[in-house]
Amino acid sequence: MRIGFEAKRATHNNRGLGNYSRGVIEGLLNHVPDIELFLYTPPVQNPIGVEWIKTLPANAHIKTPNSLFEKKVSSFWRSFLMANDLKKENLDIFHGLSHEIPYRLDKLSFKKIVTMHDLIFMRYPDFFPLIDRLVYAQKFKYACKHSDKVIAICEQTRDDLVNYLGVDEKKIVVHYQSCSENFYDKQSSEKIQKIKVKYNLDKPFILNVGAFEERKNQLMLLEAFSCVAHKIDEDLVFVGQGKKYKEQIENRIDELKLKSRVHLLSSVTYEDLPSLYQGASVFCFPSLFEGFGIPIIESLFSRTPVITSFGSCFPESAGPDSIFIDPHSISSIGESLVSVLGDQNKQELMRNRGFDYVQRFHIKNTTAKLMDIYSQLTVN
Questions:
Q1: Average pLDDT, the chain
Q2: What distance in Å separates the CA atoms of residue 178 and residue 98, rounded to the nearest whole number?
């Protein structure tokens, strides 16, 4: 099977959409024989993207703009001119991995698929500038209308596609994503200790991973921690990058006089994350809304207990044995932290059952399901 991908996020994005894109591509390359992948991307200068491309096997072909004009206006190429290049590869399927597909694919014979991660810009418009909302709405509607199949990464996204964009639910298929296989392997106690020392973590800790954004709700977690810090031994560790919202958190840490108990880590390498997850006592993720919440399944694969929010996609990603809190309630978050951290038996139960639950998101299983979607589409 010959599959083309809109792969900008895979080569340029080091966060959620990039991780999803790379995961899909790597899953197919590692677990599906007799497959040819064509990755369409603007010129890659991001060092992480450059290194990732070097790891790809010969049956993964990088396709970038050809002419000087296309290279200078790569965003225009990506949206309007890519169709000219797609004609040349005799594709069976073209898959837009993050909310969009190029224009002018209507008359090309291969099947089109788009993955829709979330409609957060419609649920929480105040978090997005007006121009961004207008552009997203136009691109998302076009992609859903002109794709033969729309992949929703969770049931919540499927419902939102129907309710907000009016997509025919018969056109939508829910396909869960996985996380990097780096999180599947148990780290040695020596490796975990080395990483703790590297980041100056000399006490047990609560972990939160995610960009510093208002939607991620780290400030509420900080407030909850400040209320229960005297009851628990664990420090609080935030891993992520950000600017304005991060500054608010830093200022609040100073006001609460918690600099010795709260750690903000903005330069954690991806290779170090598995050890941080496995070294944590609990993972707390009180986000207001997510497309899927990849850090949750990274934590479950790491056998770390999860506390996360009611609603959204969280019951799907975290499973029935995680602890769910009201993300708007300081007391709900704080009481759950004390409850889990104070009960070793509960932690062990959450570790074991969470690990069993998350196997449904193992990359072998998600890749097999994706190939089923591809095969059914090309047969019809």
A1: 93
A2: 15
